[in-house]
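Below is how a single chain appears once it has passed through the pipeline. First comes the sequence as given, then the structure the pipeline wrote out for it. We keep one example in the README because the format questions we get most often are answered faster by looking than by reading.
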Amino acid sequence: MIAQAERKYQMIQSSIPAPIELLSDITLSKIHPTEKSHSFLFPFFSIFILCAIIFSLYIIRRNPMLTIYQLMKYLRNHHSIKVKANQAQALRNIGYYHGFKGYRFIRNPSQRIPFTSLDEVIALNTFDMQLKTLFYPKVMFIENALISLLETETGITNLDFRYIDAYVVLITYTLRKMGETKTSCKQFISAFISCTDTLRSQLSATANVCNQILGTQQRSHLSTLQNFLEFSEQFLNLLYIWVRYGIV
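Resulting structure:
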C-alpha cells in the first residue's frame, strides 16, 4: 500500500509547482516507510494540495492582478488621472493600493480629493513621508519622557503605550493635575476595568488574545494607579493644611 501511495504521490508531484513540491517533500520525509498506520494520508494530502492549486488558479483567473502598466491605464481611463509614460517606477514606489487608494479622500469618503495627475498623488505621498520623518523622532522623545514622568509620579513600572492601560494612566494623571476629583478619576478607572473584565469573560477560551490586546500587567498597573490616587489625595489635604497654617 505504501508503494502504491508513493507512486501516486510521484505522479501528482510532477504537476505541482516548486514551493508546494518542496512542502510535500518535507512532509513525506517525516513519515517513515515502516509506519503503515500513516500510509493512508499520502493520497489525501496530494488531493488536498491539488484542490488548493486549482482553487488558487480559479481565483487568479477570475480576479487577475493587473500589471503596473495596466494600473497606469486604469488610472487614466477610470479616474481621469494623467499618468506619464515614464512614471511606472514612481507608481511602483508608492504602490497603487497604498499610494493612490490610501489618499482618495480626506477623513471621510464624501471628501474625495479631485486628483488630475499622478504628480499630485506623488506630491501628497512625499509630503506624508516627510511628515513621518519629521514627527516620529519627536513623538518618540515625548513618549519616552511621558513614560519616565508617569512612572516617577505614580510608581508604576514598565509602562508601554502599545497597550491601553498606559493611556488610562496618562489620562488619569492629567485629569488629576487639572483638578479633577479623586472620585471622578476612580469612576473612570472602574469603567475601564469593567470593560476589560467583560472582554476577558467573553474571550475566556482564548485568554492569550486578551493579553495581546490589553497586556499582561494591566491589573497591577491599575492597582498602583488607584494607590497613587489615594496618596495624592492625602498629599493634597496635607498641603492644604500646611498652606492654611503658614507652614509652607
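Confidence is low (pLDDT under 50) at residues 1-6, 12-38.

See the next section for the split statistics.
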